[in-house]
Design goal:
Elements: E1 5-10, H1 14-23, E2 29-32, H2 50-57, E3 61-62, E4 69-70, E5 86-87, H3 92-98, H4 102-115, E6 118-119, H5 124-136, E7 139-141, H6 150-157, E8 172-176, E9 178-179, H7 194-197, H8 199-203, E10 214-217, E11 221-227, E12 233-240, E13 243-257, H9 260-270, E14 273-274, H10 276-281, E15 288-289, E16 298-309, E17 323-326, E18 330-334, H11 339-346, H12 359-370, E19 382-390, E20 398-400, E21 411-413, H13 425-448, H14 451-454, H15 470-489, E22 509-510, E23 512-513, E24 516-517, H16 521-530, E25 532-539, E26 561-563, H17 578-591, H18 602-652, E27 660-672, E28 677-689, E29 693-697, H19 704-712, E30 719-726, E31 729-732, H20 733-736, H21 738-746, E32 749-752, H22 764-776, H23 782-795, H24 800-803, E33 810-811, E34 817-818, H25 823-835, E35 841-844, E36 854-858, H26 864-867, E37 872-877, E38 880-886, H27 890-897, H28 905-922, E39 933-934, H29 951-955, H30 988-993, H31 1002-1019, H32 1022-1042, H33 1059-1078, H34 1084-1099, H35 1105-1135, H36 1144-1172, H37 1176-1192, H38 1205-1210, H39 1215-1228, H40 1236-1239, H41 1248-1272
Parallel strand pairs: 1-2, 1-13, 2-10, 7-8, 13-26, 14-15, 29-36, 29-37, 32-35, 35-36, 38-39
Antiparallel strand pairs: 3-4, 5-9, 6-9, 8-17, 11-12, 12-13, 16-19, 16-23, 16-25, 17-18, 18-19, 20-21, 22-24, 27-28, 27-30, 30-31, 33-34, 37-38
Helix pairs in contact: 1-17, 2-11, 4-17, 11-12, 13-16, 18-23, 18-35, 18-36, 22-23, 22-25, 23-25, 31-35, 32-33, 32-35, 33-36, 33-39, 34-36, 35-36, 35-41, 36-37, 36-39, 36-41, 39-41
The protein binds flavin-adenine dinucleotide (FAD).
Flavin-adenine dinucleotide (FAD) binds next to α1, β11, α9, β25 and α17.
């Protein structure tokens, strides 16, 4: 049920309640009070009830020094609930020493004097007292209710000269105070809790309780303060009748200790702040060492002397001490006839000598008091207590822990002693002050004024040595008998002696109890000493400057923990302290700024808004483009047809002479192995001439592929030597490196691999157009480009009218099959794409014939019909050249080397292979005699520039294709269409071809790759897209149904959920994130399938890997964004996930940003696995392992600090952790469950922006790694 608060106040006493009343107007407040509600004690309203309240409410601590009983009132309102209730201002120095602005203090005092303080009943009894003081002549009655150092101003305001005053700057004064006690007009006490319970009635303001910000936990004790790793106070461990619990404050919330002078330092020490020796002694981990905690205790003492009152006086049973006589060092008051029992009950036998104030005496006296067992509290003659109190005590004591248990009271040492002779230093001074006060304010007062007469004790005019009246003597004797009787019953207690025997006149002693000797100061001191007790006006155990900072009252060494009770005072409050305690509470509350509720973060909202805009724009743009394209096509259709016809006619007309495109000499290839270098190709020479078809033959292992790869510029491994002329450019493989051959050849050749890869969803036109766009760049004239592509299709036997829009077909990743081209048609399409490259040379693993396009073909034992179409033959055996020359010269070759002569056509190819195998077997490598025939002498390799081939000549060369290889193994198809012949001379396409050898700009290529991937992977593969989106939708609906409305919570308030409810929300979020991180796995087949196309296309050198990677990442980003929007639109409302600190749209957009980034990271992770790992299965295994571990490390299952060191360190690289943090922060920041973010350790980084930043970083890193992995995917040959 718990939730976090803006402020937690420990201790609902005088200061705590006042503080709560202020803070409750600024935020959610939890006030924790150890005791019960004050209304639980109706006894407080009748005098007979006081002893019982004292027994129940006031903790009984016995001062180790003096033996006086002391303690805190454990009840709502604290001391103000059962004290004497005199409203008196504390001295100004106190507020300035605390850094509290005096005008604020003035305002607070005035407020209290208006609300809780009432004019005390002023009756005969009070008048007697006041008049008696006036008789002294040196006491001045101040008007109004101003006290302490405020008196100065009051005097000035009343034109009283300060020069007449004493050393404090003002005269002895008589002050008639207001009170919070019941009066005739008001039978209810107004304790500090009145400030939030009822003060609004007086002030005519809105009720604080009705505002709903204040929660008061009664009978609940704070055990210790909880800090985070940065020493920031975040919560309080509590124990209540309901058991243990912890209450937390929000992120910048504050905890206030107002548990009084004993419990506040105790709580600090139990929480690890205090003297090291004490903390070590009780094995309390030190959070911050501070030797001052618990020191400087002041416990002001009072002397209790009772006067005999022989007559009933109006008001002698009502007021307690509303009339004060204040002199320079002491002050005194006379309280009503019921107060003796009251004081005796609190002080646990205050009327006993200190050494007799034992535990058992205290218990017995309490019992006697409760049941009136002591019997001297009766009607008729009675004792009227008169107290003399030191104003500025000097004695300092301390408190320390008795154990490490919160339930044990502290040990109190007040700096005094139980033996008068042991008094020294400040305690002796304080004692002397009180003795002086007794002499002045009791002895002198009684002897020089008519007070005793007015009380009915002696006649006003009785002389000093005249005997006491018989009535008085009788009263004193009776009361002494009663005391003695009581002493017998209360065996442990010895009441202060009443030396009546020697005390018969005012000249020897005064008729008080104990009787005060007038002339014997030694006895007087002893009697006063035995009558001393605590006033419960303690202060100083967490002194400002030592334990708390001045002004903020923040505890030194930690953050967000403050103290605002009387323990922070450096000096005791003059006369009465509870008003000062309340003023400190009020002013600290006033100066405390409200806790900001939830940080509005721009970044997530901007990010998600941007994504939404893009997603909305895409279909819009596509629709516009489609309409525009349709209109444009319609307009230009006629032009295109005529253009193609004229292009075909002009192409047919041209033919050019044969030109040598490439020559090579002594080309070898070797590989470094562990043992030694291994050569696989030896000193090959040859040439490629435009328009000629060259067969590259040899038995298996003859290094045909090595030679073909070297010539095609595709060789990526091995050490190549030899000399080349490539289109007139001389390259020495040793000097210039292979890359130069690669660059030179790649731009002018087409390589047709054995296995072709096409997107099944592509049309034939799109496939060829893609290659043309990649190699020829952006068309200057789109119709010309279309005509060219149509002609490429026509040329390979795929009439464009029929095939241009035909889908290639095949198996889509994911299992769907699209009907399309036959195997042969696919082969032809490969040729068409090769033609679109406008190559000088085609390197083909299969056979074809393109006139004026040189073709080098690896061919295994071709049929005679096919073989006769070749112009040249390169025959290899174990990497060595057996034959290199025109087919026409084969008869000569046979004649020269073999007796049997050249075989028939149909045996020739087979026989050549047999010859090569035999030749290979006959000779070992060391005895190679050179080629049987290599008529390459006419192709010297020159490095002179004059020998360079005229490129212009080749560009003018016609490529005339007649697919006359019909019926061959390749079955390219027939060519009955005369328009399928191409000529590149002086026609519009040729103009394009002027630029064709310059690489198109990367931006263009990127655009083409992007568009192609968009169309084929998403728009044309709509089933896959819909399927993936459907799984997001279905899963989101299911999760929404399972966790339906968890965000509402049965006990949630307008500012959020309880902790228990929020914990359920955290678990829900784990499943929400599962959607983001696990559903991308459905894309693995798609990614892996795409990888094949990518590898094949990259091997053809069509584009760089990064272009594919980038377009893929961007497209997947858009897809995942769309998926995240769907997911968010379903889950968020179904689960009622909303952050009440913000408006619903802001809260939605922030969560959307978290889900978008999570989806992106999840998807890119899967993409990386698909690209980096060799198989789909491995991608699944690796991806799911990473995501599962990452989920486990997210903190949603177990806070990281509860993990061992290794997983604890791993959490920082878990992307799900940051997603979880972003999502939870977006939901809980600023709410009543905000602190769960810290408790669950979802706080590094602590903002949504911070976590999204990390996720963006991870996303970019994964994208980069994917790019790198894709670079490595390039074919190695
Ligand atoms: C018997 C008696 C008579 C007094 N007479 C007078 C008088 O006549 N005039 C005068 O001005 N002053 C009087 N005082 C003193 C005055 O009441 C106190 O100085 C004043 O109340 C102190 O205020 P405080 O806020 O510092 O602490 P308190 O008012 O004592 O409040 C401390 C509160 O903290 C609570 N608390 C303590 N520990 C815990 C914990 N671990 N968890 C939760 N709650 C806790 C206590 O139950 C208590 O309610 C008297 C005090 C007593 C005890």
């Amino acid at each position: 049920m718990s939730r976090n608060y803006d402020y937690i106040i420990v201790g609902g006493g005088s200061s705590g309640c006042a503080l709560a009343s202020k803070l409750a107007t600024k935020g959610k407040v939890l006030l924790v009070e150890k005791g019960a509600n004050h209304t639980a004690y109706p006894q407080s309203k009748v005098k007979e009830g006081w002893p019982q309240i004292a027994a129940v409410v006031v903790s009984a601590l016995r001062n180790k020094g003096s033996g006086h009983w002391t303690g805190t009132a454990n009840v709502l309102g604290g001391g103000s609930t059962m004290n004497a209730g005199v409203c008196v201002r504390g001295q100004k120095e106190i507020f300035t020493s605390l850094g509290i602005d005096l005008s604020s203090a003035e305002k607070a005092f005035q407020f209290l004097e208006r609300t809780i303080c009432l004019p005390a009943d002023y009756e005969e009894y009070q008048k007697i007292f006041e008049d008696a003081w006036k008789e002294r002549g040196d006491y001045y009655r101040l008007p109004g209710y101003t006290y302490g150092s405020w008196i100065e101003e009051a005097l000035r305001d009343n034109n009283v000269s300060l020069s007449e005053g004493n050393s404090h700057g003002y005269k002895n004064s008589i002050q008639v105070a207001k009170t919070i006690m019941p009066t005739k007009d008001n039978d209810e006490r107004r304790p500090a809790s009145f400030l939030f319970e009822k003060s609004h009635l007086v002030e005519k303001e809105a009720s604080i309780l009705d505002q709903g910000n204040l929660t008061v936990l009664l009978l609940t004790q704070a055990k210790q303060i909880i800090f985070n790793d940065n020493n920031v106070a975040i919560g309080v461990d509590l124990i209540s009748p309901a058991g243990n619990m912890t209450a937390y404050v929000r992120r910048e919330g504050k905890i206030f200790l107002n548990a009084g002078v004993y419990e506040t330092p105790k709580l600090l020490m139990l929480s690890g702040i205090g003297p090291r020796a004490t903390l070590d002694k009780y094995d309390i981990p030190v959070l911050y060492e501070n030797e001052h905690v618990g020191l400087h205790l002041q416990d002001r003492k009072t002397s209790y002397i009772t006067l005999a009152g022989l007559k009933d006086i109006e008001g002698d049973d009502a007021a307690i001490l509303d009339v004060l006589a204040i002199s320079e060092k002491t002050w005194s008051y006379m309280s009503n006839k019921n107060t003796l029992v009251w004081g005796n009950a609190f002080g646990r036998c205050q009327t006993c000598a200190p050494i007799h104030r034992t535990n058992s005496c205290a218990t017995q006296v309490l019992a006697a008091a409760i049941f009136y067992g002591s019997g001297y509290q009766d009607s008729g003659p009675h004792y009227l207590p008169m107290n003399v109190i030191g104003r500025y005590p000097e004695t300092r004591g301390n408190i320390t822990l008795a154990s490490s248990s919160y339930s044990d009271d502290v040990i109190v040492q007040d700096g005094w002693s139980t033996n008068i002779n042991d008094l020294k230093g400040p305690a002796l001074n304080d004692f002397n002050t009180i003795v002086g006060g007794v002499q002045d304010q009791i002895i002198r007062f009684m002897r020089e004024t008519s007070i005793l007469e007015k009380l009915g004790t002696v006649a006003l005019n009785a002389s000093l040595n005249e005997k006491f009246s018989a009535e008085l003597q009788d009263f004193l004797t009776t009361s002494q008998d009663q005391r003695l009787k009581a002493s017998e019953l209360l065996d442990e207690c010895k009441f202060n002696e009443n030396p009546l025997g020697d005390c018969v006149s005012m000249d020897t002693c005064l008729p008080t109890t104990p009787s005060i000797p007038v002339n014997d100061s030694a006895i007087l001191r002893e009697i006063v000493f035995n009558s001393l007790g605590s006033t419960w006006h303690m202060s100083g155990t967490c002194r400002v400057g030592d334990v708390v900072k001045k002004g903020s009252m923040e505890v030194i060494g930690v953050r967000n923990l403050h103290i605002s009770d009387l323990s922070i005072l450096d000096e005791t409050v003059d006369t009465h302290p509870f008003m000062t305690a309340m003023v400190i509470g009020l002013t600290v509350g006033e100066n405390t700024s409200p806790v900001q509720s939830g940080n509005f973060e721009y970044f997530p909202v901007i990010l998600s808004s941007f994504c939404c805009v893009i997603i909305l724009l895409i279909p819009f743009i596509l629709i516009i483009k489609a309409i525009y394209g349709k209109l444009k096509n319609k307009r230009k259709m006629m032009d295109f047809r005529s253009l193609r016809q004229s292009m075909a006619r002009s192409l047919r007309a041209q033919a050019t002479e044969a030109v040598t495109i490439m020559k090579w000499r002594n080309v070898s290839c070797s590989y470094a192995t562990k043992a030694a270098s291994k050569t696989t190709l030896f000193n090959n020479s040859g040439k490629i001439v435009s328009g000629e078809l060259t067969a590259l033959m040899g038995p298996s292992g003859s290094s045909k592929s090595t030679l073909l790869d070297i010539l095609a510029g595709r060789k990526s491994e091995g050490r190549i030597s030899g000399a080349f002329d490539v289109l007139g450019q001389h390259v020495d493989a040793y000097q210039d490196g292979v890359s130069k051959i690669t660059t030179a050849m790649k731009n002018h050749s087409a390589y047709i691999p054995q296995q072709e890869f096409f997107y099944p969803t592509q049309t034939c036109f799109e496939a060829v157009n893609f290659v043309a766009n990649m190699c020829l760049g952006k068309p200057k004239n789109e119709n010309q480009r279309k005509a060219f592509i149509s002609l490429c299709l026509d040329d390979v036997g795929l009439p464009s009218e029929e095939f241009a829009d035909r889908k290639i077909g095949g198996d889509l990743p994911g299992g769907i099959t699209i009907r399309g081209l036959s195997g042969g048609e696919r082969k032809r399409l490969v040729l068409a794409t090769a033609l679109a490259l406008k190559p000088r040379v085609m390197f083909i693993d299969e056979i074809t014939r393109e006139e004026n396009v040189a073709s080098v073909v690896i061919i295994h034992q071709p049929s005679a019909k096919v073989f006769k179409n070749f112009d040249n033959l390169l025959l290899l055996a174990k990497g060595r050249q057996v034959y290199a020359g025109p087919l026409a010269e084969l008869p000569e070759f046979y004649e020269r080397n073999y007796d049997e002569g050249i075989p028939q056509d149909y045996d020739l190819a087979d026989d050549l292979i047999v010859k090569a195998i035999a030749y290979q077997a006959e000779r070992d490598e060391d005895h190679w005699a050179g080629p049987l025939q290599a008529n390459m002498d006419d192709i010297p390799i020159q490095s002179t520039s004059e020998e360079k081939i005229d490129l212009g000549k080749i560009e003018g060369t016609s490529i005339v294709s007649e697919n006359y290889l019909a019926g061959s193994e390749m079955s390219v198809g027939d060519s009955e269409n005369p328009e399928s012949e191409l000529s590149f001379v002086d026609n519009p396409i040729m103009k394009e071809s002027d630029e064709s050898y310059e690489q198109p700009p990367s931006s263009w290529k990127l655009t083409i790759v992007f568009k192609r991937n968009l169309k084929n992977q998403y728009m044309s593969n709509i089933a896959n897209v819909v399927g993936r989106l459907a799984s997001y939708t279905i899963l989101s609906i299911l999760i929404g149904a399972i966790f339906f409305q968890v965000g509402k919570g049965a006990n949630s308030s307008s500012d959020g959920l309880t902790f228990t409810e929020a914990e359920l929300l955290i678990r829900t979020n784990i499943f929400v994130l599962n959607v983001s991180y696990l559903l991308p796995f459905s894309s693995i087949p798609v990614f892996v399938g795409d990888k094949r196309f990518f590898v094949a296309e990259c091997a053809l050198g069509l584009y760089s890997p990064w272009m594919y990677g980038l377009s893929q990442v961007v497209l997947e980003t858009l897809f995942v964004t769309l998926a995240a929007i769907i997911q968010t639109c379903i889950i968020i409302p179904m689960c009622s996930m909303v952050n009440p600190s913000f408006s619903a749209p802001i809260s939605f957009m922030t969560m959307l940003a978290a889900l978008i980034m999570s989806g992106l990271v999840g998807s890119t992770l899967v993409f990386l696995c698909s690209m980096a790992l060799p198989s789909q299965d491995l991608a699944f295994v690796a991806g799911s392992t990473i995501v599962t571990i990452s989920l486990a490390l997210s903190g949603g299952f177990l806070p990281p600090s509860e993990m061992s060191a290794f997983p604890y360190a791993l959490q920082w690289i878990s992307p799900v952790k940051y997603s979880m943090q972003a999502l939870l922060t977006s939901q809980l920041d600023g709410t009543s469950a905000e602190r769960l973010l810290d408790i669950g350790e979802f706080n590094t980084p602590s903002s949504v922006t911070g976590n999204l930043g990390v996720l963006v970083g991870i996303f970019l890193l994964l994208a980069l790694l994917s790019g790198l992995a894709m670079t490595r995917l390039k074919e190695t040959r």
